[in-house]
Amino acid sequence: MHRSRLPAAERRRQIVEVTTRLIAERGFWGLSMQDVADGCGVTVPGLLHHVGSKDGLLLAVLDHRDEADMQWVLAQAPGGLRETCAAVVRRNAGQPEIVRLFAVLEAESLTPDHPAHDYFRARQERTVETFSVLCGDAVLARQVVALMDGLQLQWLRFPSLDLVAEWEAGADRLFGPLTSGRE
């Protein structure tokens, strides 16, 4: 098999993309380093050179997604909590494979021995804290996260569901209907 040499940054990007797709399809426990290596046209030792271990591979995928999402959210510069969440839901509606990846990994990581257990716990705490700052209410922030996560799971199960419309209907119940002049 012919293996092409790519610059390290490009190879790492390729590894993250292939791994993202495979985890979304199979979950972390169904991921094999050989499948990732084959998908990238490298050997397993070559793959390990870039990521260190299977756990390192998973964390590279998660860090990459969080960084990309944070840059996008900051670029959108929405106002309050409702507007921020609406922007996130619109973004997620356009990337079902990423939403599926995070849903699968978050569910798997509920077991304490999962390599992303601490990552997802800290991510959830950061999200609730950030939302609490935006709305001034930790209980509301947790309810918003639950609504977003629950709607995304339903949308993944039933793709004909309009995620954005469902979010807006739920947001109207949590925040009250939008008044003219806003969003």
From TrEMBL:
This is TetR/AcrR family transcriptional regulator. It comes from Paractinoplanes bogorensis. Keywords: DNA-binding. Pfam families: TetR_N. Residues 32-51 bind DNA. The lineage of its organism: Bacteria, Bacillati, Actinomycetota, Actinomycetes, Micromonosporales. Residues 9-69 form the HTH tetR-type domain. PROSITE patterns: HTH_TETR_2. It comes from the Bacteria.
